[in-house]
Specification:
Layout: E1 3-8, E2 23-24, E3 27-28, H1 29-39, E4 45-50, H2 53-60, E5 65-69, H3 81-92, E6 98-101, H4 111-123, E7 128-134, E8 143-145, E9 151-153, E10 171-181, H5 182-188, E11 196-200, H6 212-215
Length: about 220
């Protein structure tokens, strides 16, 4: 079984300048994801995709990490992740069974998290997995303003007043781990397939660094 881990890390960032290589507990932020990938028992190849030479040079210092220069059109503020992954797969031109996306802004995600998630996927009949954590505030209890300017429930007007125990469990993607069968991904171009399972992580390990407050 061949498994490729892709760590996308562009040079630009609005919230924290040079975010992907900012110091986090003595290491560049991206290094935490590189180390977790290299320690995984399932991952056979680790790739860092970036438009930034400094990031690629840093990745080159880690043993067994492939660096791929990303086209500038795939490194904009509004660039989506899926085309970046496709670019890597087309550049590598090797056959892989699974693709794991590891975003560098999740430094507390460990190799144990990755391997346990992969174990869960292999035991299922699913084609993809997304790591999540529970929402602290249930979305069904939220409101929106309708076209007439009045408040109404985002789903209906009963849900905001129901006990939380009567509502279904809801989760948010924490951005730490995405796993998908490569053939399914190339067919649909999406990380969320028709058969996607979840992998629940703790609030702590789900930390996604997007601001200086997150970094602190």
């Amino acid at each position: 079984m061949r498994v490729i881990a892709i760590i996308p890390a562009r040079g630009g960032s609005k919230g924290i300048p040079r975010k992907n290589i900012v110091n986090f507990k003595g290491l560049p932020l991206i290094q935490w994801s590189i180390d977790a990938a290299l320690k995984s028992k399932y991952i056979t190849n680790v790739v860092v995709s970036s438009d930034d030479d400094e990031i690629l040079e840093l990745a080159n210092k880690s043993k067994d990490v492939v660096k791929i220069k990303r086209p500038i059109e795939l490194a904009q503020d509004n660039s989506k992740t899926e085309p970046v992954l496709i670019h890597v797969l087309n550049t590598i031109k090797n056959d892989y069974d699974y693709l794991i996306l590891l975003q560098p802004t999740s430094p507390l995600r460990t190799s144990e998290d990755i391997d346990l998630a992969f174990d869960n996927l292999l035991k299922s009949n699913a084609t993809s997995l997304i790591s999540v954590c529970k929402l602290q505030h249930h979305p069904y209890k939220t409101f929106k303003i309708n076209n007439n300017g009045f408040l109404e429930g985002i789903i209906n007007n009963s849900f905001p007043f129901l006990p939380r125990q009567e509502l279904p469990e809801t989760y948010r993607a924490n951005g730490a781990i995405y796993i998908v069968k490569v053939n399914e991904f190339l067919k649909e171009g999406k990380l969320l397939t028709q058969k996607t399972i979840h992998f629940e992580m703790s609030e702590k390990n789900s930390l996604d660094i997007d601001s200086k407050k997150d970094l602190r």
